[in-house]
């Protein structure tokens, strides 16, 4: 049975899957050496998306916006794409994909509340209960997030690598020197030391 809701549901599910894949890819990008900043990555993403949408609109000969639609679209893009996505990208290398993605789900109950206040949509019991569950899950993630360095800022991790390498190299050199001294002590004095000792003894007898 056809339903007008099915295309919207399919688009929402596809968007969720696309963001799941994109989050993994961007997290790997930010963890690599020479990674761009969150703002630079977001600017590149938005420019690429804008070019694709422009080409699609020209190909379909559709894209006429009238009235207040351009202003609403501009404000939505500024708040959601420019600011929101940049902050999400900044969160990925700091707290990991799992934590950042779950916390980002807070947009669901916030969107429902905004639709109710600004657009007059009715919030049903099931929708209200789902929003409460989402907020509860976000709260559990915030409270139970481990305080480890696994999701530390990659720039800070790269800055700490030479320090750890220098300490390791210094410890290795100290250990090698101690082993060499122990081996010399076990072997006893070398040939030069014994010759020097014999000459001293002969001078003493003389």
Features:
206 residues; mainly alpha; 7 helices; 81% helix; extended
Task: Explain the overall architecture.
The protein has helices at residues 5-31, 38-60, 69-104, 107-118, 125-144, 154-187, 191-205. By secondary structure, the protein is an all-alpha fold. Helix 1 (5-31) crosses helix 3 (69-104), helix 3 crosses helix 5 (125-144) and helix 4 (107-118) runs antiparallel to helix 5. 6% of the residues are buried. The chain is built from seven helices and no strands.
Short description:
With 206 residues, the protein is an all-alpha fold.
Task: Describe the secondary structure blueprint for this structure.
Blueprint: H1 5-31, H2 38-60, H3 69-104, H4 107-118, H5 125-144, H6 154-187, H7 191-205
Helix pairs in contact: 1-3, 2-3, 3-5, 4-5
Number of helices: 7
What gross morphology would you assign?
Answer: extended
Strand content: under 5%
How many strands appear in the DSSP assignment? 0
**Regions with pLDDT < 50 over 5+ consecutive residues?**
162-166
* Order of SSEs: HHHHHHH
Which structural category fits the helices and strands?
mainly alpha
Oligomer: single chain
Distance between the termini: 121 Å
Mean pLDDT: 74
Bin the helical content: over 70%
Characterize the main sheet.
Answer: none
Rounded to an integer, what's the Rg over CA atoms? 33 Å
